[in-house]
């Protein structure tokens, strides 16, 4: 299959709309990351997403709409709290899990009786939905398990020959996928953190829970109720290790770890905050943003992980951020990128002292 990468204009949007109506796939930008779209009502079309990504079919997809009227048939009911959240955060990077309606393909929902829906704010997505009349299922446009792409070129690297069209809408603004919030019953619960934070949600609803699986792997028999819940996900080819501890200890430990790995013949590097780039200048440092700006770290994270693959790094040590606000989304992705492999800086330094 020949994959076209086209700039966004009336002609390319019309082509994207036509392909979706015909049951084909289109990759396109959203404000979070680039996604692969297929008609959420067309099970055969949605199956092509799983094939293109190499994604397990027990992993549910999110349905994208451009107006509240499109919820009819996609969900069986719209809870009152969902209406409040939509008024506050839609269009935007918030997915709400609601009771599934009769028109959504079972393939889209991985057989669950719920469906995740969001109204993206990116003008390209809105234009394609309006032109096609299609509410589409759209996971991130990467090969399954790899870091999500935040630009058209990275999307092409993964999807060349796997789908007919990629719309190039520039860089995604947020850099990590949407917040997923279950509003079906009980206390609202964050299944996947993103740019809409717990504090923001609580300003509208009051108390909001956070699923235990946000910062740990799924347990045996535990279903993936949201995308991004797999044990290892968003991962580069190299082994990522998270280094925790006091700031000075983390910098010293990462320097020792990277030097030791280099001496053993690995291509080792560190993912560090802007403030520590100079201290770690001999450790192949990659700047993930300021320690005081979790949103900047979120924006840079996936792009950094993809650059590490281009550089064939096989051992990667990363700083961490507090799991608060957008930092919770960063640590959710970093934890899965590292398959939850974490070490304490003081333990490293004690070993060296011994």
Topology:
Elements: E1 4-7, H1 10-21, E2 26-29, E3 34-39, H2 43-53, E4 62-64, H3 80-89, E5 94-99, E6 114-118, H4 123-132, E7 136-137, H5 152-159, E8 165-168, E9 179-182, E10 189-192, H6 198-205, E11 209-210, E12 239-244, H7 247-263, E13 268-272, E14 285-287, H8 294-310, E15 315-318, H9 326-337, E16 342-344, H10 345-353
Parallel strand pairs: 1-8, 4-6, 5-9, 10-11, 12-15, 12-16, 13-14, 13-15
Antiparallel strand pairs: 2-3, 3-7, 4-7, 5-6, 9-10
Largest sheet: 9 strands, mixed
Uncertain regions spanning at least 5 consecutive residues? none
Beta-strand content bin: 15-25%
Average pLDDT, all residues: 94
Order of helices and strands: EHEEHEHEEHEHEEEHEEHEEHEHEH
Sum up the structure in keywords.
354 residues, alpha/beta, nine-stranded mixed beta sheet, 10 helices, 32% helix
Q: Please, could you describe this protein's structure?
A:
- This protein is α/β, with parallel strands linked by helices and 354 residues long.
- Helix content is 32%, strand content 18%.
- It contains ten helices and 16 strands.
- The chain has helices spanning 10-21, 43-53, 80-89, 123-132, 152-159, 198-205, 247-263, 294-310, 326-337, 345-353, and strands at 4-7, 26-29, 34-39, 62-64, 94-99, 114-118, 136-137, 165-168, 179-182, 189-192, 209-210, 239-244, 268-272, 285-287, 315-318, 342-344.
- The strands form three sheets. The protein has a nine-stranded mixed sheet, with helices on both faces. A five-stranded parallel sheet has the order 14-13-15-12-16, sandwiched between helices.
- Helix 1 (10-21) packs across helix 4, helix 7 packs across helix 10 (345-353) and helix 8 packs parallel to helix 9.
